[in-house]
Amino acid sequence: MGLLSLAIWIPIAFGALLLAIGNDRNAANVRRIALIGSVVSFLVTLPLQFVEKQPWIDRFNVFYHLGVDGLSVWFVLLTAFITVIVVIAGWEVITERVGQYMGAFLILSGLMVGVFSAVDGLLFYVFFEATLIPMYIIIGIWGGPKRVYAAFKFFLYTLAGSLLMLVALVYLYFKSGGSFDILTWHKLPLPLPAQVLLFFAFFAAFSVKVPMWPVHTWLPDAHVEAPTGGSVVLAAIMLKLGAYGFLRFSMPIAPDASREYAWFIIALSLIAVVYIGLVALVQNDMKKLIAYSSISHMGFVTLGFFLFNAEGVLGGLVQMVSHGFISAAMFLCVGVLYDRMHSRQISDYGGVANTMPVFAAFFVLFAMANSGLPATSGFVGEFFVIMGAVKVNFWIGALAATTLVFGAAYTLWMVKRVYFGEVANEPVRALTDLNGREFLVLGLLAAATLWMGLHPKPFTDVMQVSVTELLRHVAVSKLN
After folding, report:
1. With contact defined as beta carbons under 8 Å apart, do 290 and 334 qualify?
2. Does residue 480 surpass a pLDDT of 60?
């Protein structure tokens, strides 16, 4: 078993162990096992090899084929890193069904690594769909008052979108002479009508997962009802599965259709950037505001991809990694307040910086990063995408740049009302600042946010070769 397989199956094995032995009477041991499992899983991702292939289902020529490149390697690392964060963040907060909670997250982590690593189409689909099950359980059991509604909505939206993708995969299997190898599919000389049908079949699956406007309505409900850890993984990792799918399937398999309908994706992405940014501005619930912020920022990602230039695609990838750090941190910050006050309403706070100065400093940093402040990771990806957009069309770049205005408006207005000024509500006076566990979690994410903002070269260097190869492949028409 290679390192890629270990990165997938170690967290799944630890998760299954926790499901088997976990009960609230030995919660302390459960937490330790979960932490060990998440840390080992993260360490295994550091020296990843790039390819692993074994026969899986001989009858249908299906292989257990794994591989990572510049498009996926950072997301394998990000998934494992965020899992460690979630385990530590839930250490004292989760007091019921601790084993099941930690086990669900570890299993989900392994499945998401599988999505980013799969090079066989059927294997990708199995991992892609299997991620729904642990997240459905996490929202449905540990979520808020409307958790069952939110869990069903999340499950049905994402499952329905994926059914057309399954049809597309079966078509490609027969078209390629009985192969599920994704790299083989990249070379198929498909006519434009077939490419268009494939493009929209993949679009149905990946647009819901991102989620793009107008199929985004499941996300705010899921975020609001999910426990803090669920919101962190949903925003930091699961939304990236859809955007990654565009790079791995839509663009290289149907390049002519992708260029033909790039205007469609760009239009939907700009609506997400502008309209959803305005929707975020009127939210009273902090979690819902950050959820809408995620939709707007993921619109920036899809915009960058379908500009078909190096700046746009590279910027979209950097934005995905950056958003993983920043959105995770902001949802964790809301969780810190909710654990103390049991409210996410902005109006219930005011003057938090007076009683929690260290915590307020962390949140202001993440808020600035969410607004695209230079020297934070939030700036790097947005700057690249705006550069790529201006190269294509000045007005696309101008509309894309409005995210810097709207992002600052809704984020900093929330900061002003929650953190600054005099203490507006008596319960705020009793708040205590961060404990050691909370400081560690937010400190790690702050370090990642600043590292990527100040020195993005290690990230972009790894991505550059794969981005160049993808654009070269997409530029060569399959119709000639």
Report:
1. yes
2. no
